[in-house]
Amino acid sequence: MRERGPKTWVFVAAGLFAAAAGCDQSVAEETDGGADGAGRFVTVVFDDAGHEVVLGTLATTLVEGTPVVGLQAVIEAALPGETPDGLVAGFVGADGFRPESREFCELLVPVDWETLGRGYIHPVTRDLLWDAALGFPGCMSPRDIAEIDVTRP
Q1: Would you say 36 and 56 are in contact if contact means Cβ atoms under 8 Å apart?
Q2: Once rounded to an integer, what is the mean pLDDT over residues 102-121?
Q3: Most exposed: 96, 122, 129, 144, by fewest CB within 10 Å?
């Protein structure tokens, strides 16, 4: 077995420090809405009006072992009584990121109502998740979605 020198231990210590720093981030995340997402919301914009939907108030389903909220459920909660036929949606991250700003995603947005039925948002992190069978590239699964822009083309 090879002996490890001082440089190796510096890298190990740096890695442990980085991992510990990551834990602080998740604790801060939980204080911004609770561990169950009870206070986290997303704004659904339709006809120039914003409707806040508290994600922790909606039913979750397990996808790949993770509890998530269906995108259709979020939009229906924001727009009660609105006929969903023909609705399409785009997404805006808290940092302003839009999936369509990337080459591989520009033709995938806006997302039609049927496809939204195969999309989910994590109630705490607000990360998007899609049915793997769709084969969406990574740019369609942005983190920390703050806004869902809904239109009827």
Answers
A1: yes
A2: 97
A3: 96
**Residues with Cβ within 8 Å of residue 106, at least 6 apart in sequence:** 100
Classify residue 80 as exposed, middle or buried by CB count within 10 Å of its CB (0-12, 13-18, 19+). exposed
What is the spatial distance between Cα 58 and Cα 67, in angstroms, rounded to a whole number? 11
Neighbours of 139 (CB within 10 A): 18
Q: List residues bridging with 128 in a β-sheet.
A: 121
Please report where in the chains the tokens 């077995």 appear, as a residue.
1
Residue 58 to residue 36: CA distance in whole angstroms: 11
| 85: Cβ contacts below 8 Å, ≥ 6 apart | 113
Q: Is the pTM of this model over 0.85?
A: no
Q: In the structure encoding, which two tokens stand for residue 122, read together?
A: 């994590």
